[in-house]
Amino acid sequence: AVPVVFPAPLPQGTKVNGTRCMSGFELRVNVGIPLSVFKKKAPAPAPIVETPAPVPAPVPAPAPAPVVEKKEKPCYSLEEITAMMAKGESVEGKTICAINDAINFDFGKSEIKAESFEYLNRLAETLVRTNAKIKVKGHTDNRGSADFNMNLSNERAKAVMNYLVKRGVSPSKLSYQGYGMTLPLTENETEEGRSLNRRVEFEIMK
User: Fold this and answer.
1) Cα separation of 105 and 122, whole Å?
2) 115-131 b/e with 16+ CB inside 10 Å = b?
3) Local confidence pLDDT in tens for the 206 residues of the chain
4) Other residues' Cβ atoms within 10 Å of the Cβ of residue 41
5) What is the distance between the terminal CA atoms of the chain, rounded to a whole angstrom?
6) What SS3 state is found at 203?
């Protein structure tokens, strides 16, 4: 605020601070200027910029586990197939292998020896219970010529098929084939290996 004061009149000719008052009046003016006018304004505060919180990188999805294709066993025992059927499991596509001379023949012949009948009877009981077609497959070891073994394995497979028919397996679902020594299970260098290779297989067709 700027106050303006009008004092009482002074006598004419009175000096004020060496200055004569011409009109007989003294005009006193007090002007108040706030000190803040001379102060520099404080700079405006810098705007606060919020730094966004770092966003964590997405966690990559785990790589899918490799699919391991389950391979079918080349051979099942008669007991394994019987147990699977008892549990209601499918046996189609599986092969029963009569190995270790479970089905015996005289050397170089196709007549089934009597000691094999008990195994073949149990086999027939199992095969009667499935509607799948059965392929009887004959195999030999490597002793003898390839042609002889091919014919021998074919005749032995046929003999086994005929025995199963006699035990009640429908002939309409049976077939046979000989493979000679072309599909060994193992090497033929030992008697044990040759015993495994002399076998009859029963493939339960899909």
Assistant:
1) 18
2) ebeeebeebbebbeebe
3) 545 455 555 555 555 554 444 545 555 555 555 555 555 666 777 777 777 777 777 888 887 777 666 666 889 999 999 999 999 999 999 999 998 778 999 889 999 999 999 999 999 999 998 888 999 999 999 999 999 999 999 999 999 999 999 999 999 999 999 999 999 999 999 999 998 899 999 999 98
4) 6
5) 112
6) strand
- β-pairing, 4-5 vs 28-29, is antiparallel
| The pair of three-digit structure tokens given for residue 83, joined into one six-digit string | 């147990």
| CB 93 within 8 Å of CB 198 | no
20 CB-near residues (< 8 Å, 6+ apart): 13, 14
DSSP 173: G
User: Measured between alpha carbons, how far is 41 from 29 in angstroms, rounded to an integer?
Assistant: 29
Q: What is the dihedral of CA 56, 60, 61, 64, to 10 degrees?
A: -160
Q: Are strands 28-29 and 15-16 parallel, antiparallel or unpaired?
A: unpaired
> Quick one: 100 exposed, middle or buried, by C-beta within 10 A (0-12, 13-18, 19+)?
exposed
Looking at the domain covering 78-204, what would its CATH class be?
alpha beta
Q: Where are the domains of the chain?
A: 78-204
Q: In the chain, which ranges are E strands?
A: 4-5, 15-16, 19-20, 28-29, 95-98, 134-139, 174-178, 199-204
